[in-house]
Amino acid sequence: MATIDQMPATDNGNAVRGRSLWDDARDRLLANKAAVASMILLAAVAIACFLGPLVLPHPYDAVYRDFVKVPASLEAYPREDQIAPALESLLRRGRVTVDTVEVSGERVTARISSSRDIDPRLVRYLDRSDLFRNGEVADLAADGKSATVTAEVRRLHFFFGTDSNGRDLMTRTLIAGRVSLTIGLLATLVAISIGVIYGSVSGYLGGRVDLLMMRVVDVLYSLPFIFFVILLVVFFGRNFILMFIAVGAVEWLDMARIVRGQTLSLKRQEFVQAAEALGVDNAGVLKRHIIPNTLGPVVIYMTLLVPKVILLESFLSFLGLGVQEPLTSWGVLISEGSRNVQGAAWMLIFPSIFLTSTLFALNFIGDGLRDALDPKDR
Amino acid sequence: MARYILGRLLSAIPTLFLIVTISFFLIRIAPGGPFDLERPLEAKVMENLARIYQLDKPLWQQYLLYLKSLASGDFGPSFYFRDFTINELFAEGLPISIQLGSSALVLALIVGGAMGVLAALRQNRPADYSIMAAATIGVTIPNFVVAPLLTLLLGVWLGWLPVGGWNNGAARNMILPIVTLALPQIAVVARLTRGSMIEALRSNHVRTARAYGLSGYSVVVVHALRGALLPVVSYLGPAAAALLTGSVVVETIFGIPGIGRYFVQGALNRDYTLVMGTVVVVAVFVIVFNLIVDLVYALLDPRVRYD
Amino acid sequence: MFTVMRTGLLAAALIASTALTASAEVVYHRGNTADPETLDQHKTSTIYEANVLRDLYEGLTTANAKGETVPGVAESWMISDDGLVYTFKLRADAKWSNGDPVTAGDFVYSLQRIMNPETGAKYANILFPIKNAEKVNKSEAKTEELGVKAIDDHTLEITLEAPTPYFIDLLAHQTGLPVHPASVEKYGAEFVKPENIVSNGAFVLKEFVPNSHIKVTKNENFHDAADVKIDTVMFYPTEDRGAALRRFQAGEIHSNNDAPVEQVKFMRETLGDQFRVAPYLGTYYYALNHKDEALSNPDVRQALSMAVDREFLAEEIWGGTMVPGYSMVPPGIGNYGEPAYADYKDLSQIDREEKAADLLKAAGFGADHPLKLELRYNTSENHKNTAVAIADMWKPLGVEVSLVNTDTATHYALLRDKGDFDVARAGWIGDYSDPQNFLFLVESDNPGFNYANYNNPDYDKLMDEAAATTDLEKRASILKHAEEIFMRDLPFLPLLYYGSISLVSSKLHGWEDNLQNIHPSRYMSIAQ
């Protein structure tokens, strides 16, 4: 086993200080290359999500009305061949005839004429568009019927494309990551903690207590979740904490059943019975002997729970409990993307890449953790 | 053991009662009623409807009436599908959901289990990594993405399989829904099996068996896999209950008349009787499957006892 | 697993064999928004129910392929000079699917049934113009007092409360469809089951499997059966519009009465003229709560309306499937003429925005004192995109919008209960082609629809006046005056006129785009 081979000798160098189970686990985890690489990736995604939106040029809620659903591209928008037609159509809204358009680098120049007096305010059509800025009317003819209009071309980059409202998908994907990572990791931790404690207590105490505690789980499994969420929204409005409650309320149930199953088997094993014979109290047995030995399946289940929670959040948004526009989450972006898969595939691809790579990293960290925490492996 | 089973079955009655009671009042607190849809109704019309469906009675009376009809096996009339009773809807849809769900479950167990065992035996080698990577993709990509992509690829572009429709249960129409349902479960089963399998392979009795020279195959199957299945079985109880009662996403996208959609349709249409019906069905499945799971524990691991 | 596979294969074999033998049968696979709540015409209220019922039944009047009202069971009718008494002459060859003749008595029975409060008809109010109808439905009069009388088997007389110029159109509505009295008496509510149903339209019901399909087959007893070219229509509920598009692309359905708006560009490019957009009789609007302090100021409401770039909404958010809306009543409606457009309709967007900013500033709002509004919408992708776009258009005026979405039932329950909201999305599709059907929404005694809590006695008076006016031109001008008041007061903020979007296979003939989006299967044919 690779992990065993690479395990540093326990009494090498710091023999004086006793090594705890956690020290061992940490060392072994750090020796697992896949896990370390995954941690770096996860950290990179987290940093990108939390800091990225601060440095990217587009605010996450900025609407570019001229760039609705433009494809992902390394090139800047507008494309060269879009500039002249766009200028013409904008100027025409000012009710003038466009005679010639000339594009040279960052500047555009157009000759315009009109049967009526030209209103110099027409450059506002250029300035308020996302394509041009600093529009000016020059050489206004004496009769006011013809003129030259110049403007600068704005260059905007949308590396991930834009969404149905013309918002930069890159910034939105990163902003969404904040929400999804937070809820994915925190809500999972909450659900796992409840599930582990509840399940181990139920399994360890056994008998009537177990029967009762597990029937409570059965009841919670069966209640209509949608109504639970709707009621939360109606009575408490929206807030982030409610989302944790809603997610936590359902997602710990599986965990509790898994841990209870393990506990039922563990509590008959020699080392547990030895501890009991030595007079260790229930809490002590649970803490030292039962729970650490259930961590294997727990860690694995945790890595499965994170994607579930992240996607569940998008369903909560549907019912009005999750994040609300203009904020967003990966789950919401992906469900939007899946509706746009024919025609605007980038709306699905980029958020999916972020979600998938995060979950990949979590899985390998989970496996590494599991190996590192395995008590039999020492 | 017989006493334990009997006790569990008896405890199901108060459990069900509690579930029905909480759910009944929970769904009535929610805003909006079964006749509050996008187009508002005249007040008088609303009154007529409320009278016909006994919604004008005090809530506690409605609750007693519901319990009474439930006790006789009658789930009542649907408020949304007004030409059907809940019993008729379930008689039509439940077998379909069970058929699809159980096929997906079996597929997930076989494929996921095999993947998990294989990965465990090749721990931290390329085979392990690639199997786990495949499993990760399975669990990462949500079914509302998988289903459209599969139908686009195999239905629209290649034309091999139908895009949707039930077609009275033709095999062609079942393949994609079953695969879509099974994919995430395959991933979960594979990962849980792998983890437990690794642990079991290192445990003393397996090491002993190996030391005695038992062949690799029989060690894996007889000793390791049995113990390794515990967490998988724990997970499968509720998972099976969920799978067999249908999936709203899969049924909606593939146009399948199962009961999975009724969970969401019922809730969004405030079809009280339909929601209560789904609650009871799920409760029965959860109770039964969790009982089965507990019995399987004792079979898999002689150390598990319930006294 | 094995039994599952075996039955599956068996079924597949069966399907294959029937497909071979029945190749001559013309089957129209038709996508239809959702399953009907019921096939009892008197209990229905939705458009997707109407689509099925229209194939099963024929009313006194009916719709042709263009959606125009034409004679149905009634071959002709006379209207008394005061516009109150309609005498219908029923065609002699009209028959029920079991061979019984369709008689005037059947219509008397049916109209009495829908008004009977015990029936629980959701849309009984559509036929309230009939004398005593409202009273019967409210248990204030006996059903026999309803103003409907069979003179003989083929002559029916209907008396109205007041002259109603759109009454003939109302009779083509699903609520005006007849039931077969003997079946209803025999089976009660079960008369809609395929084994019991007797209908008088071009098709008869064979199967109804919720969430799967509705199968109807040609009615050989239908008086125009010779011209019906389709043998079987399969209706599929297509709640998932993306899935419906894929089924259409794969050739599994011939038509669908909706399409995913997100993919308009893709559909235009790949489907060509199989993707249809037609003007529709509906308005997409935001209700403004007049009880809200800031919104009670008409200038604020005008400013909010002016600042909305409706062209952008229609073209970019809705992909050209909606039309910029500057009035409550959609253009092209019957008995009207040009609607009363907002006076800024012809201003450029820049001028509108300038004016809007001035108005808001005058009302005391601006960047330093923002107007805070909560915008509520029911969950749907394009309602969300619309709300996001509008919030962005209002932002430069110093309006801070927070968006709140809820599920449909919660949303409308809140509106109906006059909950605490500022701005809320809603929409209205006309039941019949008449401006009254749009303008009555904000009458002060219409609490169910008047989400805005709008109360203007002048407006109510004009609406009453219009209801009592027989002269169509005069009535139109009164209604137009009412709409002018509407557009001045803006209880609702009209944003867009609906377009109907459909997927129609090039193999399917006889589907004609029309304002009411009515497409009876009996006029269609399928090219092999």
From TrEMBL, chain B:
Its main location: membrane. It is found in: Cell membrane. It is a multi-pass membrane protein. It comes from the Bacteria. One of its GO terms (biological process) is transmembrane transport. Keywords: Cell membrane, Membrane, Transmembrane, Transmembrane helix, Transport. Pfam families: BPD_transp_1, BPD_transp_1_N. PROSITE patterns: ABC_TM1. Gene3D superfamilies: MetI-like. Residues 94-297 form the ABC transmembrane type-1 domain. This is Oligopeptide ABC transporter permease OppB.
UniProtKB/TrEMBL annotation, chain C:
Residues 69-446 form the Solute-binding protein family domain. GO terms for biological process: peptide transport. This is Peptide ABC transporter substrate-binding protein. Keywords: Signal, Transport. The keyword Signal applies. One of its GO terms (molecular function) is peptide transmembrane transporter activity. It comes from the Bacteria. CDD domains: PBP2_OppA. Belongs to the bacterial solute-binding protein 5 family.
